[in-house]
Amino acid sequence: MLDKRLNSPFGYLLLLLAAVFISAGTAVLGLKFGIGLLFLIIGIPVLLGSVFNLQFGLITFFVISFIIMGISRFVSGIPLGTVMDAFIAALFFGLLIKQIGSKKKLNIADPVSWLVIIWIVYNLIQVFNPAAASRVAWLYTIRTVAGSMLIYFIALQAIKSLNFVSVLFKIWIVLAVIGAIYGLKQEFLGFAEMEHAWVLADEERFSLLFTWGRFRRFSFFSDPTVFGILMAYTSLLCFVLMTGRMAIGKKILLGISAILMLLAMVYSGTRTAYAVVPIGAAFFTVVTFRRKIILMAGVMVLLGAAVLFLPINSIGPLDSNALDRIRSAFTMEENPSYNVRLKNQEYIQPHIWSHPIGWGLGSIGVWGLRFSPDSPVASFPPDSGFVRVAVEQGWIGLILYSILLFTIFRYGIRHYLLSEHPRVRTYYVGVLTVLFSLMVANYPQQSYAIYPTIVVFNICTAIVVRLKDFDNEEMEKLNGGIKSIN
User: Do both 147 and 197 map to the same domain?
Assistant: First the structure.
């Protein structure tokens, strides 16, 4: 009915007036008007669809998390972080609606889910922390620290089959490959005009992005650090999935994807990412402990040692500058930034010990300088995710946080060893390798705190909890197929 009405002189006139209105509004009011109107036309229906279909909502949110920080680089004044918070709230509301009308309630009897709940509650009661100099800082910080962990429960409900896990992996890898290709475009063809203007607009930003005589590449992510770490752990996921049972063509695609990501990672100039790859690979080797994997790891160690210690000036597209930066990641005593971090941690330790529940959320970093500049810890640089937890939530919070991470790995490794289906085992070790890599990266960086990694972390944690439920189902399918062949 609607298409017939639009396919008429009146419809053509209406569409013409709409086009003129959008064009004029964008020209007069700027890009914000166009984006706002686009949100009304597309965003609201998508949001409503996400509320009533959590699988669609989780995928949509996952995709948006990859591009949101890149958009915020060029569109000022639009609270994109608030938009993401609203999206999480809408998805969680949809989860609650489903729980009210469903006979099959969300199972949170596992230790991981209970510890996630305890962690969220601990962060909520931080608002009453007597040492906190600002309650407003708590309000700004709780969104990232605890609010984002609602994604875990949304994913727990949305992940209903092993095939959906596979879909999430495919979307994740495709988005990462696109990011890698765009990062390589920045390296070999240069920044776009808007990107170059953004880099030059701030002197401090320029000094962070132009190091070692070259620009660090960031693709369409917030900064080179997020980009580099994302490339590192996603390339590891590709390599782990390659060891599973699949067609040779898929393995080749995964291998090419991993190589593109590793190359893009190098040009990000993120030394933490350089270290994450061998450490993550070592974790995968130890957990699987298969002869072929051990032999491959041995070969990679020899190749890595050759790059680090032999006087090699270039390897393919990697020049001496890129190789020197890689080498610097493994020579900590010659790494100025690492030594600065050690000194900062030595300075802050007495403040941590004297405040068991911390100085309050948002007491350090940007929010600390903004809302409590007179605090003794406000100017402390929160370079490490673990140190930030220790300062803001105290050594009690750090212990609780460490128990949560330990429980995730204990739960995941236990069920990986108990699982029988090859695909389930591959997925288990894949997400565990990613989570371990992120945990390692969280010491020198705040690897969990920014999109899309914060979403990746919570989805991977949900996958660790849910995979065991699919092991028996997949084994029954596999055994049924074998019986039918016999």
Answer: no
